[in-house]
Design brief:
The complex is a heterodimer of chains A (250) and B (337). Chain A is an all-alpha fold and 250 residues long. Chain A has 13 helices and no strands. Chain B is of the alpha/beta class. Among the domains of chain B are: 144 residues, P-loop containing nucleotide triphosphate hydrolases (Rossmann fold), CATH 3.40.50; 75 residues, 2-Layer Sandwich (Alpha-Beta Plaits). The chains are: A mainly alpha (250), B alpha/beta (337).
Chain lengths: 250, 337
Amino acid sequence: MKTVLAIAKREILSFFVSPIAYVVLTAWLLWSGISFYALAQFYASNPSHGSTDTPISIFFGGTTLFFIPLLFFVPALTMRLIAEEKRSGTIEPLMTAPVTEVAVVFGKYLASLVFWIALWFPTLMYVWLTSRYGSVDMGAVAASYVGIFGIGIYYMAIGVLMSAVAKNQIVAAMLTFMMLGLLFVFGIFSQIMVDSDYEELFTYMSVWGHMATFSRGVIDTRPIIFDVSIAAIALFFAVRVMSQRNKGAA
Amino acid sequence: MIRVENLGKRYGERAAVRNLSFSVAKGEVIGFLGPNGAGKSTTLRMITGFITPTTGTISVDGIDALEHPVEARRRIGYMPEAVPLYPEMRVNEYLRYRAELKAVPRAQMKKSIDAALEKAKVTDVQTRIIGQLSKGYKQRVGLADALVADPKILILDEPTAGLDPNQIREVRDLIRALAGEKTVLLSTHILPEVEAACGRVLILHQGKLVAEGPTDQIRKTLHGSASTILVMSGRGVRAAFEDAVRGVEGVRRVLDAIDMEAGIVRLRLETEPNAEVGARVFSAVAKAGLALHELRSDAVSLEDVFAELTTADAAASDAPPASPTPPATTDTSEVAS
């Protein structure tokens, strides 16, 4: 456990001294800021919209487009984790220290969850802003953040796995992007194949489908179970990949 | 302290290490010698658990390193060949991280880091960013890392690569100072390194152990001959010299004669090892009335031994490494004694 924390701590330190951290965080802030501004504008000019939606609930769960940038930002956050150790060779001192593959994978994963939280932390400011000028359903906001954290659990684990598989950051980023993109597209199927037998399955896999539920203040355990299951599978394979390293072919 | 038996590693068809067996006693300083690609790094990486051997067993301080890799690694301080480091970290941050990974107790953390900084002589750069350090400093940061948890065993892969002569001397002094207290296994392709720091040598070539023994013994007994260098002048001096020393005890033959400038000839004379032929050769030369400018014995360097062993071996074992158990053990034990 101590080694997990040591690895996570080092990873976080290295991340926050790297320019990529600030590029990603700034770009995300810009994107979410624009989205929020647009939503706030819309509701300000259409006060009698009539529905139960609020800028905050739409912000978290109303639009598919809002999640598409995450397909780029997540790989940027996770690509270095293990792939960079392999490229630079620091994997050698790391794996010859008295640490297990499980500790390394979990240390990296823990760090990635911290990056995820750092990504979303500034969005609390939108909640604060809206609460100053109107009423905010704090329950729904809390539920939304639970949902967001669930997505982090899921996306970051995929990123860790791809970073373990790939030999360098670029490949890791591409693989993560492809994998998340694929899973994201499955979610879109739920809206296309409306009356098909698989609609329920695709809905279950849909990230913003999950968020639509959470943003209304409903904490559904099924999406959380889905997120945790995907994460468990991804991390299991990441550990396997790490232990297979250098066993067989050159 | 370290016991390796029948260790082998193959990458597909290519065998990087074949049937390697050796052991290192507590407090010994052992040098792994071999040209690049001989399998030194592969062997060290197998002992430290970075790569998994195809065959064989490794025991570290009585622990089966393949069954209990984490326990085995706890006893080892390892410095990899290229000394990979995180360029964005500061030296003291890095050592703190490494000490945490190696489970140094929190109470001893500062003391351990300071001691490692001191021993590796990097105290003055401890707050600098690793990426901005010179190669020599980076190398010593790697050494500090190997030392930080005060391990029983040190495994250093090419510890002086990239250092300047002063730094090389410092590192050798450090290794010598650690002898007795720690078991050290180091690899190098530079012969003086082994001669300077190690009590025992293992010579590796094409993944096989070709010779093993105490450093001075390997220098003396492995090589079947010694040589003496003479600088003489005169017309047809080589033939005259050969006549003069014929029958002198301990002298074998003239290896070569190189014409220097102005009739000066530099001859190399092959002699019996430890024959102390100098005085006898001198009196024979004097009796023949030849002009002698210089006479000195040419100590057999490990370089000669090495060249002889590795080139001879290359010729003998040209067969492809297809057989899973090459008969490597026989030739090694003979030369070792």
